[in-house]
Design goal:
Helix content: 40-55%
Structural class: alpha/beta
GO molecular function: guanyl-nucleotide exchange factor activity
Strand order of the largest sheet: 1-3-2-6-5-4
CATH topology of the domain at 13-174: Beta-Lactamase
Protein name: CI072 protein
Organism: Echeneis naucrates (Live sharksucker)
Number of helices: 15
InterPro entries: C9orf72
Pfam families: C9orf72-like
Order of helices and strands: EEEHEEEHHHHEHHEHEEHEHHHHHH
Length: 462
């Protein structure tokens, strides 16, 4: 063999994933930097289907190698995950690559977990980018532990790669349109009637707004579920609607972490079991709406949700680290072994916060004639009012705390000055403000951490 020839490359392992419908994802890859061979692809995940529509293994390997070139001198904190977005016009693809350090075969390596899509899917993918990245980041945290212990990281990564492929395929066919016709929602009904009681609609919209626009709608009738999904999506931005999903007729999607509103069908026994970890890892608390029995329940507010989420995440990673063998605790198992933190699996609570904002809106919107643009215009004005109140609240807190230099101590004055003395109204505006300035809840309610019950007592004392 000539001295100029590189060593022969080993075959790349490949998993074909059966995805229902057309997958917008071309492939996913796990690659690492080999000190002898340079960038090496360890595994490829590709959807099953018409192979003429997909990239060849050689092309996938070339694209995966492209993401690791130049990373040999990477300087980053231990445990950091860098997200890189490549648009290769000459290849007609986009690559989202997460670069991280891991221990492979006893050596520290720079690794890359990437997903590859056609460039034509750029507009479709961008609204979902944050959802995909956050989910991949956490599976990388678990994967790094598996690598450190010498276990098979591919099995761990598959736990999130495959669901993301399924998520993107389902969003391609069942995502909520950017523009929703109010005639397809409950807000166009002349009389709400028995199909959707006024109190149920009021609670559903109010809780939906209090949980930052994140809701799960479950039921046995797909038409009824989708009507409520479209109704709730009226209160979201156009980008957030692209991150919402209608339910599928005659079958049910799985619950997906990170979506704003999603419709889910019950099984033949009339039940739907939500996965605890996936719900807890949602970026915002969630409202649970059952259209069969007209019930509305919600998770604790943002600061408590974030607190529980981080404690559970630490508990999960700590438990994985303590495993003695790969079979002891599979990475997709609900962890509840940490003595310092036992999560409450019944995380949805009754909606106990009354409000006047949504109540007045519902009372007044149904006074307008249906079938015209009046109700849509009135809805736009209502959302504008909430947005301006949220901006005013942020400015108020900035002034009172000298832009965060001092702790916030004047909740009573804020409620009075901004006309938010009703607890539900305050929660709605705080949720709007949280989306504008992440961490606001934790800053306002401060330390030590309040549980929702303690917080309720504190609020009622003012």
């Amino acid at each position: 063999m000539s001295s100029g020839c590189p060593p022969q490359s080993p075959a790349v392992a490949k998993s074909e994933v059966a995805v229902e419908g057309e997958s917008p994802l071309l492939a996913a890859t796990f690659a690492y930097w080999d000190n002898i061979l340079g960038p090496r692809v360890r595994h490829i995940w590709a959807p099953k289907g018409d192979q003429s529509m997909f990239l060849s293994d050689g092309e996938v390997t070339f694209l995966a190698n492209h993401t690791l070139n130049g990373e040999i001198l990477r300087s980053a904190e231990c445990g950091a995950v860098d997200v890189k977005f490549f648009v290769l016009a000459e290849k007609g693809v986009i690559i989202v690559s997460l670069i991280f350090d891991g221990e492979l075969k006893g050596d520290k390596n720079t690794c890359a977990l990437s997903i590859i899509l056609p460039q034509t899917e750029l507009a479709f993918y961008l609204p979902l980018h944050t959802i995909c990245v956050e989910r991949l980041k956490h599976v990388i945290r678990k994967g790094r532990i598996w690598m450190q212990k010498g276990y098979n990281i591919i099995s761990v990564l598959s736990l999130e790669i495959v669901p993301i492929m399924e998520l993107l395929a389902s969003m391609k066919t069942h995502s909520v349109p950017e523009d929703i016709d109010i005639r397809d929602t409950v807000l166009n009904d002349d009389d709400i009637g028995d199909s959707c009681h006024e109190d149920f609609l009021h609670k559903a919209i109010s809780s939906h707004l209090q949980t930052c626009g994140c809701s799960i709608v479950v039921g046995s009738n797909s038409e009824k579920v989708n009507k409520i999904v479209r109704t709730l999506c009226l209160f979201l931005t156009s980008v957030e609607r692209k991150c919402s999903r209608l339910c599928k007729v005659d079958s049910s999607f799985k619950y997906d972490t990170g979506l704003f509103v999603q419709g889910l069908l019950k099984d033949s026994t009339g039940s739907f079991v939500l996965p605890f970890r996936q719900v807890l890892y949602s970026p915002y608390p969630t409202t649970h709406i059952d259209v069969d029995i007209n019930t509305v329940k919600q998770m604790p507010p943002c600061h408590e949700h974030t607190y529980n989420q981080r404690r559970y995440m630490r508990s999960e990673l700590s438990t994985l680290w303590k495993t003695d063998s790969e079979e002891d605790i599979p990475p997709d198992t609900v962890i509840h072994t940490d003595e310092t933190f036992t999560p409450d699996l019944n995380i949805f609570q009754d909606v106990t916060h009354n409000d006047t904002l949504v109540k007045s809106f519902i009372d007044e919107v149904f006074m307008l004639k249906p079938g015209l643009s009046l109700r849509s215009t009135y809805l736009s004005q209502f959302l504008l009012l909430l947005h301006r109140k949220a901006l005013t609240l942020l400015k108020y807190i900035e002034d009172e705390t000298q832009k965060g230099q001092k702790p916030f101590r004047s909740l009573r004055n804020l409620k009075t000055d901004l006309d938010l003395t009703v607890e539900g109204d305050l929660n709605i505006i705080m949720a709007f403000a949280e989306k504008l300035r992440a961490g606001l809840h934790s800053f306002v309610f401060g330390k030590p951490f309040y549980t929702s019950m303690q917080e309720r007592d504190v609020l009622m004392s003012f």
